[in-house]
């Protein structure tokens, strides 16, 4: 009897404290500065409307009033930070070589027509602009647009160079960077803790675990943004009639869990991306 009362009061105390702190996180944690708010994010600059990750795509998206550009970074052989998604140039340029094996001057142009990876049977035909841009070109052209930078290779030089560029262009308050790999995010944070980082995939899972056990309010978080594939992408990539019942259930569950998060946290980047990310 006595033990039951003890257990019950401990559990009640924990649940109440956890609920209170979840409601009022500022009691334990300092509020993170919110330097920009993005409702509309252009993935690879809007890969369905222009060739992905080109200056033309970014310009079009910004002209339309997008709140944020999303792009991907690699390092060339001569250590230039370029904006492109794949490590290998086969899909986008038709050339069997890695970006890291060529100097910036040697990089081939994009093909005229690229598949939009996260949309089934959708291709985008580009115009004149087929050049892989430098990250510096994007920073020069859009000094006030928030940018989400995906670090595509676990390369210390790349991380260092991106950080240097962000600092040089005074964009620490306009940037969020990271990768689904926690190793890369940890390196980014270590390189420059002033630049907001994304939750990596293991950290997203940890976040969910902490939330559902009531531990979340007690744990400090270094990350500021979530970058999670939109579950609806699953249904876009596949014919919905061919989805199994369990696939449909998982998609539904993810939408449910994620919309719950969107309601409860201000810092939310929800984006769809390709199956091969
Ligand atoms: C990082 O990239 C540069 C340039 O492509 C390359 O020379 C270097 O070996 C890479 N470092 C690692 C650890 O992969
Ligand atoms: C970022 O914004 C904060 C407050 O909004 C400001 O104190 C800080 O100086 C800014 N940092 C840079 C590098 O502009
Ligand atoms: C994370 O980095 C890996 C290489 O380490 C890359 O294959 C992957 O596409 C990256 N993911 C994201 C979301 O940037």
TrEMBL record:
The keyword Repeat does not apply. The chain crosses the membrane at residues 6-24. One of its GO terms (cellular component) is endoplasmic reticulum membrane. One of its GO terms (molecular function) is phosphatidylcholine lysophospholipase activity. Its main location: membrane. The keyword DNA repair does not apply. Residues 38-277 form the GP-PDE domain. It catalyses: N,1-di-(9Z-octadecenoyl)-sn-glycero-3-phosphoethanolamine + H2O = N-(9Z-octadecenoyl) ethanolamine + 1-(9Z-octadecenoyl)-sn-glycero-3-phosphate + H(+); 1-O-(1Z-octadecenyl)-sn-glycero-3-phospho-N-hexadecanoyl-ethanolamine + H2O = 1-O-(1Z-octadecenyl)-sn-glycero-3-phosphate + N-hexadecanoylethanolamine + H(+); N-hexadecanoyl-1-(9Z-octadecenoyl)-sn-glycero-3-phosphoethanolamine + H2O = N-hexadecanoylethanolamine + 1-(9Z-octadecenoyl)-sn-glycero-3-phosphate + H(+); N-(5Z,8Z,11Z,14Z-eicosatetraenoyl)-1-(9Z-octadecenoyl)-sn-glycero-3-phosphoethanolamine + H2O = N-(5Z,8Z,11Z,14Z-eicosatetraenoyl)-ethanolamine + 1-(9Z-octadecenoyl)-sn-glycero-3-phosphate + H(+). It is found in: Membrane. Pfam families: GDPD (PF03009). GO terms for biological process: glycerophospholipid catabolic process; N-acylethanolamine metabolic process. Keywords: Hydrolase, Lipid metabolism, Membrane, Transmembrane, Transmembrane helix. InterPro entries: GDPD-Related (IPR052271), GP_PDE_dom (IPR030395), PLC-like_Pdiesterase_TIM-brl (IPR017946). PANTHER family: LYSOPHOSPHOLIPASE D GDPD1 (PTHR42758:SF1), PHOSPHATIDYLGLYCEROL PHOSPHOLIPASE C (PTHR42758). Belongs to the glycerophosphoryl diester phosphodiesterase family. This is Glycerophosphodiester phosphodiesterase domain containing 1. The lineage of its organism: Eukaryota, Metazoa, Chordata, Craniata, Vertebrata.
């Amino acid at each position: 009897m006595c033990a039951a009362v003890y257990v019950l009061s401990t559990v009640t105390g924990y649940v109440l404290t956890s609920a209170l702190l979840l409601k009022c996180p500022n009691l334990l944690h300092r509020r993170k500065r919110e330097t920009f708010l993005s409702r509309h994010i252009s993935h690879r600059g809007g890969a369905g409307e222009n060739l992905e990750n080109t200056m033309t795509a970014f310009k079009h998206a910004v002209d339309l009033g997008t709140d944020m550009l999303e792009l991907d970074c690699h390092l060339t052989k001569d250590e230039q930070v370029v904006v492109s998604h794949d490590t290998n140039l086969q899909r986008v340029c038709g050339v069997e070589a890695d970006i890291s094996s060529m100097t910036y001057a040697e990089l081939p142009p994009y093909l005229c027509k690229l598949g939009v990876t996260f949309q089934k049977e959708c291709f985008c035909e580009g115009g004149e602009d087929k050049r892989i841009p430098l990250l510096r070109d994007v920073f020069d052209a859009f000094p006030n647009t928030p940018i989400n930078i995906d670090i595509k290779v676990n390369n210390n030089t790349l991380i260092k160079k991106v950080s240097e560029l962000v600092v040089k262009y005074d964009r620490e308050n306009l940037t969020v960077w990271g990768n689904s790999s926690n190793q890369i995010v940890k390196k980014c944070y270590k390189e420059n803790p002033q630049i907001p980082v994304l939750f990596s995939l293991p950290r997203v899972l940890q976040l969910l675990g902490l939330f559902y056990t009531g531990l979340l309010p007690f744990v400090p978080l270094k990350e500021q943004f979530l970058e999670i594939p939109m579950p609806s992408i699953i249904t876009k990539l596949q014919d919905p009639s061919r989805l199994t019942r369990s696939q449909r259930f998982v998609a539904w569950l993810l939408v449910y869990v994620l919309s719950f998060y969107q309601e409860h946290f201000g810092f939310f980047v929800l984006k769809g991306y390709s199956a091969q990310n």
